[in-house]
Amino acid sequence: MKDPILGSVVGNAADLRGEMSIQNVKIAELRRQLNSFRVVPQYESLKQRADELTRHIQELSTQDFIDQRNLDHLDRAVEETIDPEVRYLEQVYDQLGVALPEQTLRQFEDVKDFHAAVVRNRRTYLKDEIEATRNNLERRRLERARLDEEQSRILGELSEGGALEALTTLQKALAQEEAKLGALQHRLEAAQTVEASSREIDAARVDLTRAVTIDLDERQPQIDEATRLFHELVSKLYGNDRPAYLSVQAGPSSLKITPRILSDASQGINKMSIFCFDLTMAVIAHRGGRGPDFLVHDSHIFDGVDDRQLARALQAAVELTESEKMQYIVTINEDDLSKAERLGFKPEPFIIEPRLTDGAESGGLFGFRFDH
To answer: pTM, whole model, 2 decimals?
Structure first.
């Protein structure tokens, strides 16, 4: 249940329900599109016609722009076209003192009439061009309106339906989303099974914890016996003014027994707490016929321990094991043993031969010399 890989693959039930809700929305939308979908006959031809209409409408707009610009030019040309005036020439010649003969005047009149005819023809031509341009603009306006209407109709048909390929694509998308929903459903079932198992395990753990608690209540005399023995050992090391007891409770996974000495936590006190606890458990187990008749410690049990507590611990072990007909075995550094000896502990009766002399100049172990 706590496997991170399983959790990442399966997920938890709450998240999976949220994902399934979103997936159901997608599937409902695809089904709605499929239900309203209809295959339009000649879909491709209608699409091509719509594209042709778009291009034609764009061409008409371009032609309108050109004609509108030409129309502006024609209107300005009409405004700038004026009748010719030649009488000013007579005034010029009079001022110069030159009298024009009658024949010359007639030629001027002919020229004037000619220019007037040219201007009239130009105006007529420009008006015809303006009218033709306006007619073209109007014609294209009507044609563009007709094309817009046809294009709107075709686009409406295309938007309401589509080709068979589009229908197949929608069906494929729906199948994929339904497959995803099915996978989510399987993951949800697996997650629910795991979570249900977790709840069952939690319930079983609570039942077992309750059973252990009841069992501890029934075994309170044995717990009291062990607590008294532990307290007596601690009192021999530190005196009666330092409360010490065993805390026994049903833990989440096992029976939890904690030796407690009410004092400032230090390395020496922690080591002596372990010493007293081990000795207590060994004696209680031996009394009940469930343990051996000896206890073994190595020299680390006395690292950082005050000299007085070291001597008292060794003496307490001797007295208790002798009274219980047990044996306490400990490997100890010669320096530590000397400290205990100076404080009154007599180690000689308890030293087991051979004594290791690898620390002395001439010493060794089974004929070998070890350098420190």
So the answer is: 0.48
